[in-house]
Design a protein that fits this description.
Chain lengths: 260, 231
């Protein structure tokens, strides 16, 4: 007799989130601290001061889930908890799905907190930012026109992360098939898969005509923005398909090849 | 019923199991005995789906072990629980996967084994960890209970508690227990059936009582004799 799929998935997901808690706390706490520090320094030109740490934090929030993907899987072996995981009556899809969901949650939580912190601080300066963008581009565009592009860029970053995590899982599983030099094999497989993935992605790109060069300065800003949204949308879809394929292969290796 | 049909398993050049044909008795306690490297742990890992045979097949109730995991409670020799969890969290995690989890029994066993739910697994003694592993396995009403060296490195009092727990909670006819150990004397009184393994092959198999009666000696002496003859 088995419990519901939702209950099993939740147990695995909650366990992964607990494993990721230190990294999540670091990003959230740093974002809040920077915001507080900016608040205390509100007498100076704080908006300019904010840009650098916010960019750094965004990089950290975006990069940590990828690093953590090695930690989440590798630690199962180093602490022998893989014995528990592999003896559970769950499929590889559920085990890797829970890990992927936790890493994506870490990314969402980290980046959204950083964005929210930045928006919270920048919000009084928004009209000023919009007018500076307009004077830079030489057109009259409201901030709302940028929202689809920003959303699509975020989606693209998410699918890119999904792709990196899938490649990380695949390379680690292949590395675990070897008793010697498995660290080196993992690295090698990771690089080769990235190369092959890049090559695979070029095939659909050659059929879909989306230009990657946009001119957002000048009167054609509107159509350039649309073109950028289309470009990012198509690339998000390509990343998603290739990442799903790599994840599928990882699940097959886990199901049929990995043993203790 | 658990069956091995011509099962072979190697790790590199080391042969762990060599064309083993064996059927584990249903509803009884089977002792899987043998020296280190005999293939005992590999046999249990094959049953619990952690290993796959190179040749032959392992069949559990007519199915591949992968599809029978829900019926199996497996206790490995190594510590396989998350060190950051306390006993309550570990029990909650394990119970999320098995419909046969018995919360009342869990509470009973917790007090019987003198364990506290708030004990953190990374900070308790080896004996307490062994008892926790046993608790998480026996709190379930599983059809198959696989114990890999459950007494290894454990003090005498804890060993007694572990054996008492097994005797107390065994559901004869309904549950099958396989205990893999090289410490035969400790579990001799517990087992109904025995399988002696050596270098990946079955040296001797039969009913414990019958073997003792036929040969007029204890299981420890029978095993010594079986291995002496094999060598």
């Amino acid at each position: 007799m088995q419990t519901s799929a939702w209950q099993r998935f939740s147990a695995l997901y909650n366990k992964e989130m607990r494993e990721l808690r230190p990294e999540i706390v670091i990003v959230v706490a740093t974002a809040v601290l920077i915001c507080l520090a900016m608040y205390c320094k509100s007498g100076v030109d704080a908006r300019n001061l904010l840009i650098f740490p916010i960019f750094l934090l965004m990089g950290l929030a975006g990069f940590l889930p990828f690093v953590a993907s090695f930690k989440l899987l590798g630690r199962e072996w180093s602490t022998n908890t893989i014995y528990l995981i592999m003896s559970l009556p769950v499929s590889g899809e559920m085990i890797l799905g829970a890990k992927l969901a936790a890493l994506i949650s870490q990314y969402l939580l980290g980046t959204l907190v950083v964005i929210a912190s930045a928006v919270f601080w920048v919000q009084p300066h928004l009209p000023e930012i919009v007018s500076s963008i307009n004077s830079m581009t030489g057109s009259e565009v409201t901030l709302i026109k940028f929202i689809p592009g920003i959303a699509m860029a975020y989606l693209l970053s998410l699918t890119w992360l999904f792709y990196l995590i899938s490649v990380s899982f695949l390379s680690q599983f292949i590395g675990k098939l070897f008793t010697r030099f498995n660290g080196m094999i993992t690295l090698l497989v990771f690089l080769v898969t990235l190369f092959l993935g890049g090559w695979l992605m070029e095939i659909p790109r050659s059929f879909i005509n989306t230009s990657s060069s946009f001119n957002i300065i000048g009167p054609n800003i509107q159509s350039s923005l649309q073109q950028a949204v289309l470009f990012m949308g198509v690339n998000s879809a390509i990343y998603f398909v290739v990442a799903s394929l790599v994840m599928f292969i990882s699940i097959l290796i886990y199901r049929y090849r990995v043993e203790l | 019923m658990i069956e091995f049909k011509g099962v072979s398993k190697s790790f590199g050049r080391t042969v762990a199991l060599d064309a083993v044909d064996v059927t584990f008795a249903t509803g009884k306690i089977t002792g899987l005995f043998g020296p280190n490297g005999a293939g005992k742990s590999t046999s249990l890992k094959l049953i619990s789906g952690l290993n796959r045979p190179d040749r032959g097949e392992v069949i559990i109730d007519g199915r591949d072990p992968f599809y029978s995991k829900v019926q199996i409670a497996y206790l490995p020799e190594i510590d396989h629980l998350y060190p950051w969890m306390n006993i309550r969290q570990a029990a909650s995690f394990v119970s999320s996967f098995y419909g046969d989890w018995d919360q009342e029994r869990y509470r009973e066993l917790l007090s019987f084994l003198n364990l506290d739910e708030e004990m953190k697994l990374g900070k308790i003694s080896k004996g307490q960890r062994a008892k926790t592993k046993l608790l998480l396995c026996t709190a379930r009403r599983s059809k198959y209970l696989l114990l890999d060296e459950p007494l290894s490195g454990i003090d005498i009092l804890t060993r007694e508690q572990i054996i008492q727990t097994l005797i107390r909670d065994f559901r004869e006819g309904e549950q099958s227990i396989i205990i893999s150990t090289h410490e035969i004397a400790e579990v001799e009184s517990l087992v109904d059936e025995v399988i002696f393994l050596d270098r990946g092959q079955v040296r001797l198999q039969g009913e414990a009582e019958q073997l003792r009666e036929d040969r007029g000696m204890s299981l420890v002496d029978i095993m010594k004799e079986a291995f002496r003859n094999a060598n």
